[in-house]
Amino acid sequence: MNSRFIVEGLGGERNLSGTIAVGGAKNAILKSMPAALLFEDTLTLTNVPEIEDVARVAELLSTMGAKVTRGDHAVSINTSEVQTSDLDDALAKSLRASIVFAGPLLARFGRVSFPHPGGDIIGPRPIDLFLDGFKKMGCGIS
């Protein structure tokens, strides 16, 4: 069965009209920020939601040597000074999204070291899909 929404105007011949502000997507920004590791110059992202996970990803990037500037729903990231492929254990364990750093760090340095990602207490967060993908691309995992 197909689901659908039907929206009708309020009475008669009136057309619906107006505008709304669409907030940035948490799941998109938490993958876009680590992708800055793939750029040689500054990456600026806009429509960034002001949430704790964004602050933690910015902090994780900063501990690696990136210059992160936030403001007005935007974040600019310059990773030219990043010289490590090791994620800070305490920060990475506090953030489920830390696993998405693995791919960009592998691409940049050819290796990555990270703890099992943490985050909320909803339940186990297996990372097998990531590890299996890295193995299929020829990576060794220990």
Structural commentary:
With 142 residues, the chain is α+β, with helices and mostly antiparallel strands. The chain contains 5 helices and 3 strands; from the N terminus they run αβαββααα. Strands 1-3-2 form a 3-stranded antiparallel β-sheet, covered by helices on one side. The protein is extended and about 65 Å long.
Keywords, separated by commas or semicolons:
single chain; 142 residues; alpha+beta; three-stranded antiparallel sheet; 3 strands; 31% helix
The run of helices and strands is HEHEEHHH
Low-confidence blocks of residues: none
What would you call the shape? extended
Cα end-to-end separation: 46 Å
Kindly report the spatial arrangement of strands forming the biggest sheet: 1-3-2
Tell me the number of helical segments per DSSP (H or I, 4 or more residues long): 5
Radius of gyration over C-alpha positions, nearest whole angstrom = 19 Å
Strands, total number: 3
Largest sheet: 3 strands, antiparallel
The chain-level mean pLDDT equals 88
Strand content: 5-15%
Helix content: 25-40%
Structural class: alpha+beta
List the helices and strands and how they pair.
Elements: H1 26-35, E1 43-46, H2 52-63, E2 67-71, E3 74-78, H3 89-93, H4 102-109, H5 128-136
Antiparallel strand pairs: 1-3, 2-3
Q: Could you provide a short overview of the structure?
A:
The chain has 142 residues and is of the alpha+beta class. It is built from 5 helices and 3 strands, in the order H-E-H-E-E-H-H-H.
